[in-house]
Design a protein that fits this description.
It is elongated and about 110 Å long. The chain contains no helices and 13 strands. It is mostly beta strands. The strands form 4 sheets. The protein has a 5-stranded mixed sheet, with no helix packed on it. A 4-stranded antiparallel sheet has the order 3-5-9-7, with no helix packed on it.
Length: 171
Amino acid sequence: PSSTQIQGVVTLTNNSLNQTTQQQVAVTGPYVGAAPSPSSVGFGNIYLNNTGTATLNIVSSGNLPLTINSITLSGSNAQDFAVNYYPGNCTQLASEQSCSVNLTFTPTSLGTKTATLIIVDNALDSPQTVSLTGQGVLPPQITISPSPIIFPATAVGSTSQPVIITLTNTG
């Protein structure tokens, strides 16, 4: 595999002289990288007990194969979110290869819901995390006033007097 250059700082401490020095170094070699995209997913407003969907891509950003061990959810509202993917497609990814993970949000109560998607793999910075957010909202509800609507008696072929009705969105 090809190699890449990674920058870092080495700190050397000489205890006998009570001295510390830092040196910028470049290390070259193969590496494993994982890049979930997007880095956060917002589902927006979703009606209660309805489902919003989104897709997350995981890219093997290094030059060695990426091995994904698990994809899980955590957080106080994790039960409102779900992860759907085919483990066979997302187990081993060659360099620059990607796989798609389908996400859903089905709020069961009103308000802002959050969770964290956790990807455990063999990359140096494992686990990767993706923030998930969504808002559970009421669907629109229309009320009509007056109810029932009663038109005055009108001769056949004639136009009745108008009846004023009011439509209100109470949702």
